[in-house]
Amino acid sequence: MGDSRKKNLYERYEPIRRRVEVGFWIVFMALQAVFNTIVALVDARDRAVPRASWEIVTWEVSSHLVLLVLVPAVVAIQRRLSPLARTHLLRYLAWHLAASVVFSVVHVAAMFALRSMVYTAAGERYDYAGWTGHWGYEYLKDVRAYLAMVFGIWVYGVFMLRLQGEARVLDPPEAAAPEPIQPTAPEHSVPPARPERFLVRKLRREFLIAAGDIDWLQAEGNYVGLHVNGHDYLLRATLTDFLAQLDPVRFVRVHRSHAVNLGRIKEIEPLDGGDARLHMADGTTVPCSRRYREALHAGVGR
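RE: above sequence
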């Protein structure tokens, strides 16, 4: 009963998921801007040098507008770095620290640019000379915003995993009984048999997945996502470990966090810098980094 209800909730939520996610951040940032503006307007009354209300509104709105625009970048960073959280915690934290610095620099530069445009339109001049000397103060505020975003994105990801239901691969349904070991020379050793189909259990339901039907795979934190005929299955495994169960002639890693079924590639679109974009048969696109281009072309040419 509980699993069936969870499945229905996920299926109802999935069609509106994108709109809810975008809407949440818009509403959240708008409320933050309104609340902070009200507080700043109240505080301005007690200052020795009062500021015009339009200036205070401009400061708060410009800051939160830039933060809103930066949300997709933070989501992408967290998604890219999440596989390191379990195995390379120090690297994970170091990369986030570096990203927070870039986040703060972009935030400060963009909001100052917006303020300058508003001041110019009002016939005033926005003076931000010497802002570099106060950047440490700005960074302390920005790093809190950055960490709050990362934490919120992580909590939401955990919630979605619980709502979607974690899948796990059961024993292959047609696994052959092991044959008696025969003494053979090392050069005549037989490569390990790989299952052609997998039995996946998700929300107490079992799905039979043919290996050849897997379009592409993506590392997602401590999970690997299987994209099969428009359906997604999240398995607790690493991309490297799961690829070891697949035929290397058919499946090739094309990115640090992506692998594809060569038979499901429709088009390879070259990009600047040696990277590429793979257009898959299911209508999705998968990134291919320059590092893996040679392996991709070798696989396609077989």
